[in-house]
Amino acid sequence: MPHIHTQPNQHDMTVSAYIVRSVEGEWTCLVHYHRKMDILMQIGGHIELNETPWQAMEHELAEESGYRLDELSLLQFTSDRVEGTDNITHPVPFAMNTHLVGNEHFHSDSCYGFIAKAEPGSNVAEGEASDLRWMTLANLRAGAASGEVLKDVVAIYDFLLSHIDELAQVPASSFSVNKPLVAGVTYKRGAAGETS
Length: 196
Known about the structure:
Elements: E1 11-23, E2 26-34, E3 39-41, E4 43-46, H1 53-65, E5 72-76, E6 95-100, E7 106-116, E8 132-135, H2 137-146, H3 151-162, E9 168-171
Parallel strand pairs: 1-7
Antiparallel strand pairs: 1-2, 1-4, 2-3, 2-8, 5-7, 5-9, 6-7
Helix pairs in contact: 2-3
């Protein structure tokens, strides 16, 4: 999806998937070759104007990795969650950051951690990069040193893996990708989108 906010100093909201899988007892990390940036990095992309963050995560996973939510465990700080409200409860990212992507444009990114038990059940979407790689942290570090892997990706995967035993694993599909159907609160004066 193209950038939404294109004026200098504006931000787009993005989501990223940091997916790990144990291979022969060693954690490996999923990266793909980003053709516009010519570098290996995490799966992810923009939150579109008509999407919740979790809907964006679902579609980016499917398009760029071939994974469905029901094929992944999601890493959370707790398996508890707020229930019984008119809201749709979303998972909590394990990290968030804002980074400059050039041309005075910023991305504010929500980083979600996942564990995969197997390869994805589907192929990446047509037009997406098909160069997906499972790399160890040592491989990622070497790739960052040579300029092949985005340095921030190494730091974030390193952080995730250093805390993985402290995080709860919950089915990624247990969080709804629906939008709320009931308004828990409404504007008393003016409406959404109107200027005051």
